[in-house]
Amino acid sequence: MQEHKNQPLTDFIEYSHDEMLARANEFLQTSQRRHSIRSFSDRPVPKEIIETCIKAAGTAPSGANHQPWHFVAINSSDVKKQIRDAAEKLERSFYEGRAGEEWLDALKPLGTDAKKPYLEHAPWLIAVFSQKKGGVSTDDKNTNYYVHESVGLATGFLIQALHRAGLATLTHTPKPMSFLTDICGRDKDNERPYMLLIAGYPDEHATVPMHALDKKSIDEIASFI
Predict the structure, then answer these.
(1) Which helix (H) or strand (E) holds 152?
(2) Name one Pfam family in it (predicted).
(3) Coil, strand or helix: which one is 64?
(4) pLDDT in tens, 14-42
């Protein structure tokens, strides 16, 4: 490696084989209990829970450690209503034909439609934005690298953090998502909406589509050579 400032790795914890396997299985079982739901309770969730989960997302690896992401955590009823109104307007055109027959057929087993009441009902929405320029310091204006990959990793961290904290989640990606930039007051020139996460407690009548439980086997998703 080239010369660079560094420090010894002191916080790595090594486990025995049995403990490694037990921890891996525990995480697998925890992950298998994570489901995307579309019926949320309006039960409040403390800000500190969301804040801590976002901190966890901020530990994700990123290109050149530029951390090209910004998270807008939305609890305001007025802002959530604005987002719902804008999203449902787009979704109506999507389901009325813009998506195309093949895409709509793929969605039928999930039971989705243009109505998105959870955008207003859930206690928190988290808008994830990617940044074209930045750096380790928020004042930097350097080019960011591997932006899509980096923000995807951070979003994955966030979803798991929310799940492990005891909250249900749903990913929402209306197209186009430019209305999020306006509603959240973000920089149009540098930032692009990446995803909208809904987070909160599940409604007592929440369900999981059977279709969503059909996961590919290890032989279908991985090869060992």
Answers:
(1) helix 147-164
(2) Nitroreductase
(3) helix
(4) 999 999 999 999 999 999 999 999 999 99
CA distances from residue 120 to 6, 64, 183, 201, 208 in whole angstroms, order as listed: 46, 37, 14, 14, 20
For CA atoms 181, 186, 188, 190, the dihedral sign is negative
Q: Whole-angstrom Cα distance, residue 172 to residue 195?
A: 6
pLDDT in tens, 64-76: 999 999 999 999 9
> CA 169, 162, 120, 197 torsion: positive or negative?
negative
- pTM for this one? 0.96
Partners of 109 in the β-ladder: none
- Listing DSSP states for 114-125 in one string gives S--THHHHSSEE
Cα–Cα dist 118/202, whole Å = 10
Q: Interior CA angle at 69 toward 169 and 156, to 5°? A: 35
